[in-house]
User: What shape does this take?
Amino acid sequence: MEELDSADLPAPVPGPGQLLVRLQAAALNPVDQVLITGAMREALPVRHPFVPGVDVSGVVEAVGAGATRFRVGDPVIAWNGVPSGALAEYVLINDAPSASRRPAELTPAQGAALPTGALTAAALLDLTNVAEGASVLVVGATGGVGSYAVQLAKRAGLTVLATGRSGDRDFLARLGADHVLDYRSVNVAEEAHRLVPGGVDAVLDLANAGPGLAATAAAAKDGGQLVSSLGGPPAFERGVTAAYGGTTTPEGRLDALAAQAAKGELRIEIDSEYPFDQARQALLDFTAKHVRGKIAVVF
Assistant: This one.
């Protein structure tokens, strides 16, 4: 991370099906850290040097051949895949369901803070395959994905248990958590079983990976489920099954999430904003601080 630097690069040119976007804001995600450090170079190979950033919010500057959904001047948001280069003045995005028109009710920073977090949360909740009235434990609930997962789970009619720190209680309750578990002072699995006798129907773990998932899988009921974006074993003790996934962009989903946010039905939590000339510091702080929601870089 200490080797981060800024540089002047030529403006990209949109190819077929692409849009050139002049950035107004970008948001940071854990994948940025992973790509920068090469921590998952085998699964996510990236040639260095590269421009990080996958959350885009800006204005269409030019339209490539065959791109028909947007016009020059349209405000847009996008989840841009890995890597995409959103921490730059200009970026190319695809004219695809991964992009949406930014509602006028959302600021550029709010627009940037929506795509990755909300799309990933929705995709992972799909994997839990639980019905209204079920219970879910969200581990890592204060982060960029977790803050949306809590809200979407509550809107789906689930009883939501959420992990955080003692100071996060009001924040998580505001998002819709029915119970907040302070992971620094209680055994999360034991507390989940106390609050939901027999265990929760599903655990959505956004913080742990591999063998570390066993501790939170213990919060699920016998035959329950654990869902994670970080990967791990196929099953756990007591018949608890596992499902792993990440960001997906079904047709219309980002449009719907943006509309919900515009109507105030989905909160966009921004921990802090940094000007573009402090993007390096934003990335360094992102690795070091306890973040509630998202960190945005504004242009």
Observations:
- The chain has a mean pLDDT of 93.
- The domain at 117-244 is CATH 3.40.50.720 (Rossmann fold).
